Amino acid sequence: MTLRRVAITGVGVVSPFGSDPAAYWQAIAAGQSAVRLVDTVEGLEGTVVGAPVTGFNAREHVDGKSLRLMAPAVAFGVAAAQLAMTDSGLPADAVDPIRLGAFVGSRGHSSDRQDLLAAVHRASESGEFRMDVYGSVGLPLVHPMWLLKGLANNVLYFVSLKFNAQGMNNNISMSGVGGTMAIGEAYQAVQRGYLDAAVAGGYDSSLDLDRVEMFRASSLVSTHGDPAGASRPFDARRDGFVPAEGAGFFVLEPLDAAVKRGARIYGEVKGYGAATAPLSQGRLGPSATGYALALTAAIHDAGGVKPDAVFAHGLATPESDAEETRGLKQVFGAEARAIPAPALKSIFGNTFAGSGVLEATAALFALRDGLLPPTLNLTTADPACDLDYVSGSEARPARLRAVALNNVNLGGAHAALILARVD
What we know:
Layout: E1 6-14, H1 21-29, E2 36-38, E3 48-50, H2 64-67, H3 72-88, E4 100-106, H4 114-123, H5 131-138, H6 146-149, H7 154-163, E5 169-173, H8 178-191, E6 197-205, H9 209-216, H10 227-230, E7 245-254, H11 255-260, E8 267-276, H12 288-301, E9 309-311, H13 318-332, H14 345-348, H15 355-369, E10 371-372, E11 396-397, E12 402-408, E13 413-420
Parallel strand pairs: 4-5, 4-6, 9-12
Antiparallel strand pairs: 1-7, 1-8, 2-3, 6-7, 8-13, 10-11, 12-13
Helix pairs in contact: 1-15, 3-7, 4-5, 8-15, 12-13
């Protein structure tokens, strides 16, 4: 089998910095934090520290009839995929539909809090939530399409229908690694000749009402009340991630075909690796072994290329950051300290299934401009996290030919990509 080089020719983002990839990158390179107090999460008391999507009007991207069948996060994903296809300039008739694929990373069901609030309010009129009242009086008030609006494969359905993608399609409900795995599987399908083009990415919102409530009951989310200092990966005072929302999608096609049609080429995917290695049999979560296995596999897939930087997952929980640091040392040995590892969740929080592609988008611009974005709020050293995470508030000039990306979900599934410049 002849393996083809795979170029990224289209980028679409819906993010806390808007939906223009160039402006998105400029904000990141400038060290501008997207984390703020969010006071619009109805059904909760007080405010939430988070990084919501800004500058997005779903009706500019989705027709009204379809929008009625989408939870807000689903609209993020559909819009980002459409923006990526438009950005690619790929003509509608350039690819045989059976040679066009769609790969989507999601967390699973995406709720629309507005559909549940009337029922919740009715069941709570006595001052406490009553399940019997919710069942008898509340449920009839729930939007009849509530479940269908947030199905895990909704974005795949709308995107494949929109672009008539009849080739290899896949929906990857793997939360924090979903988007990364979508890019990786699309890359392999194009590389091996199964497809001639693919749209791939991920979407999510951890600011949905149900998820905010769930995270508040866990020890995973930062309790820091000041948005400016809440997200602090690898810092000794880190106490959890900041919930965020967004989506990112790429268009991938063979490099030679992209060059032939004169497409703008952002970069190429050189390698992909994945591993499932929870912390232990009794404890789920990221592990040094998982980080090392996935990244080693990606480097091997890329022909042994040594990345000039690693865009770290940087979950900002005490355990995960220490495990990621150990994983990088397992892969690179003594050279690990010489390889910068910025953590973008310090800038725009944790978008779960959307994180990998949003971080990969920044990595493509970093390769183009020779700049590494900073890890914000890294001011107190932690002996367990002693690598170069590009601390500070501004981008650092760097010679970059290839970079790696790490991502993981809370269950212990890890994924990594190698991206490179194309001269």
